[in-house]
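[job 4471] stage=fold_predict status=RUNNING
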Amino acid sequence: MPPVLKGRRALRLPTLSLPAVSLLALLLAACQLDLGICPTVDDSTVALYLFDEKSGAEVHSVAPTGAPDGHCTWPIVTRTVGPCGGALHIPASASIGQTPTETGYIVIPSHPLWRLDQGAVELWVRFEALTGSGVQVQGILSRDAKSELDPGHLFLARVRRADGANVLALRLQDGDAATTDQSLCTVQPISEKIWHRIGIDFGGGRAPEIFVDGELQASDTTSGTIAGLVICGTTAAVGIAGNDEPWVLGALDVSSDRGSPTPVSAGLGGTIAGLRISSTRRGGGG
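[job 4471] inference complete, writing structure tokens
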């Protein structure tokens, strides 16, 4: 089990004869790790997946809540090291509207624990560089289904704006057909090849919020449609209690049938670690 420390910064270092300062500098340069707060279990934790399993396709929550086990499309998804222990790498795949290719993903089944009127989802993400031009979408997480207007359906992705900047977009359905494609988009581009701690808060009678490395992100209401997928400017003050879809990590299931995680598209092209689902809004904090 890796270090899991509340309010402290944790990093596992190998045992070598180099001085500690030099070793840390080399490790940061080689891995481009950003040190950050590691997720822990507290009274608001519904599930915490550290991806610390030594091998195989299953993933388990360490929270004592009875959260279901998930599984990944092994060996497309591979195990590696993250900022707080284990991590899962998901290769890039065809984006929305492009020719389908084999996509890796992690799925966590539907469960009554996910019926949250308010809450937060946090995870670590390390994006690879996007290649090519045109429509570019990197799926981070998704609980969606095609042609459904159920409130609480959602997805989070990194999308490419018309000016080439790559930003985050959170689509959270409010049940209204007129606004179902509206999304909360960030203004500040999010960088590649370093770890970021990304969090979303939802429900509780308040608009959703996106946090990156603990900082609240300003919302974009002027870019209009991005990547043919999202319309920036949502203020949906809803939770996800009306969503009975499974969690999909590392891809989007916007074209799936109700109750199914497939088909998926927009493979992440990156690595995820430390997924925590909570029953209260966390404000980007640990």
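[job 4471] summary: The domain at 40-278 is CATH 2.60.120.200 (Jelly Rolls).
[job 4471] exit 0
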